[in-house]
């Protein structure tokens, strides 16, 4: 139970801190332009926060089930990249339905792919070497 909680907290903090820097500092003005027609006037922070916690928890719970016995950080990075690819596909589906800006969607995908890969690597480091599943 300890590793699950530690991995969840590490993954969540990684996403929360990097997300704040990316969306609220580096890209705030650009995303305001890209999302002007589709964004809520005020984001629903409670739902977003719960979703980020659940994402981190699910990643931390799922990671050991697919561990193949390699270096933990590499296994974790691979796992995070796979999760990122799944989320990228979902984002492209949303893009195909709503009138979102392609540049904003691609920026979002690039950010998420990067952060989810790092989150996975950190989860791998927390779990360390295990018996291959």
Brief synopsis:
With 133 residues, the chain is mainly α.
Which keywords apply here?
mainly alpha
Structure report:
The two termini are 18 Å apart. The longest helix has 26 residues, at 72-97. Helix 1 crosses helix 3, helix 1 packs antiparallel against helix 5 and helix 4 (72-97) packs antiparallel against helix 5 (102-127). The chain has one domain (2-127). The protein has 133 residues and is mainly α. It has helices spanning 2-26, 28-34, 45-62, 72-97, 102-127. It has five helices and no strands. It is elongated.
Low-pLDDT segments: none
Give the count of structural domains. 1
Structural class assignment: mainly alpha
Beta fraction: under 5%
Termini Cα gap:
18 Å
Please tally the β strands and state the result: 0
Order of helices and strands: HHHHH
Percentage of helical residues?
A: over 70%
> What's the helix count?
5
Globular, elongated, flat, extended or rod-shaped: what is the shape?
elongated
Gyration radius over CA: 16 Å
* Largest sheet, strands/sense/barrel: none
Mean pLDDT: 92
Tell me the layout of helices and strands:
Layout: H1 2-26, H2 28-34, H3 45-62, H4 72-97, H5 102-127
Helix pairs in contact: 1-3, 1-5, 4-5
